[in-house]
Design goal:
Keywords: DNA-binding
Shape: elongated
Largest sheet: 2 strands, antiparallel
Organism: Microbacterium soli
CATH class of the largest domain: Alpha Beta
Pfam families: Lsr2 (PF11774), Lsr2_DNA-bd (PF23359)
Protein name: Lsr2 family protein
Number of domains: 2
InterPro entries: E3-bd_dom_sf, Lsr2-like_dimerization, Lsr2_dim_dom, Lsr2_DNA-bd
CATH superfamily of the largest domain: Lsr2, dimerisation domain
CATH topology of the largest domain: Wheat Germ Agglutinin (Isolectin 2), domain 1
Length: about 110
């Protein structure tokens, strides 16, 4: 069961109460869970800026790409050994390809 909590005051949101609002500012995307009254406050606060602003096309909005966790040095040798045992092409030194990393993570 997934339950929302107002991110401003911690109020537990029951089914049908509150909402998740998504917005972006300076190229960063955000979302916040709010009670109906906090959602209305946010909309009222932003209203003058929205009226004065102009809509950006979807092409102008960049979603933040999920960051991948960098492999630790001890993990790198383990990944190389695993890749070799699977018949995957992996160099002895240097960067491990994203495809090999994805395959390793999917298998573990």
């Amino acid at each position: 069961m997934h339950q929302l909590v107002d991110d401003i005051d911690g109020t537990l949101l029951e089914a049908g109460e509150g909402e998740t609002i998504r917005f972006s500012l300076n190229g960063a995307a955000y979302e916040i869970d709010l009670t109906n009254s906090h959602a209305e406050e946010l909309r009222e606060s932003l209203a003058p800026y929205i009226r004065a602003g102009r809509r950006a096309s979807a092409g102008n909005v960049r979603a933040a790409a999920p960051r991948r966790r960098a492999a630790r040095n001890s993990e790198v040798s383990e990944i190389r050994e695993w890749a070799k045992s699977q018949g995957l092409n992996v160099s002895e030194r240097g960067r491990i390809s994203a495809e090999v990393m994805d395959a390793y993570r999917a298998a573990h």
